[in-house]
Amino acid sequence: MNWGFIREYLPLYETAALLTVRIGLLGIALSIIVGFFCAAVRYFKIPVARQIVAVYIEISRNTPLLIQLFFIYYALPKIGIKTDPEICGMAGLAFLGGSYMAEAFRSGLESIEPIQTESALSLGMKKSQALRYVVLPQAVSVSVPAFVANIIFLLKETSVFSAISLMDLMFTAKDLIGQYYKTTESLFLLVVFYLIILLPVSILGSYVERRLRYAGFGS
Q1: pLDDT tens, 124-145?
Q2: Which H/E stretch holds residue 67?
Q3: Torsion angles phi and psi, residue 179, rounded to 5
Q4: List of domains in the chain
Q5: What distance in Å separates the CA atoms of residue 57 and residue 97, rounded to the nearest whole number?
C-alpha cells in the first residue's frame, strides 16, 4: 500500500465526495417529492393519473439507472432537451428513486386503518386535514425503514454517474487507476469514502426507527 499516493490524492477524493453527496441529496429530495405525489395519486385512486403513475413506476423500477442516465443525457438532446451532467444525475436519481419512494409511501398509507380517517371526518375535519394530521404522521413513521433503505440504495447508485462524465468518486478512482495503475490504493480510498457517506445514514436511520417505535409508531 503506497500511503504517499493516498495522501497526495486524498483531496481529489474529498472534492469528488462532496459532488457525489450534493447531487445524491438533491436527487433524493426530488425523488421524495415525486414519490409522495405518485403515492397520493394511487392512494386516492385518481382516474387516468393512477394508470399513468402505474406505468411510470413499472418503467422506472424495471430499467437500470445507467440506461436512464444514457437516455436523459444522450437521447433527449436529439429532441432539443439538453442537460449538463449534474442535472442529468439529479434527474436520473429522481426518476428512479421516485418509484421506490412512491411504493414506500403507498405501503405506509395503506397500513393505516380506514376507520381512523372516518373518525377524523366525523369529528369535523376536512379530508386534507385528516390526511395531514392523522394519516400522514403514522404512514411516514411506518415507512421509515423503507425510506432509509431507499436512500442508501440511491446513494450507492451514484457510482454510475461516471458514465456521463461526472467527476464523482467512481470517476476519480477509475481515472487514477488508468493513469497510475494504483488499483489497490484507488479502490481503498473509494471504499473508505463510500463508508463515510453511507454509514452515518444507516446509523441515523436506525436511530430514528427506534425512536418512532418507542413513541408508539410503526409497531
Answers
A1: 888 778 878 888 888 888 888 8
A2: helix 65-70
A3: -85, -45
A4: 3-214 (1.10.3720.10)
A5: 10
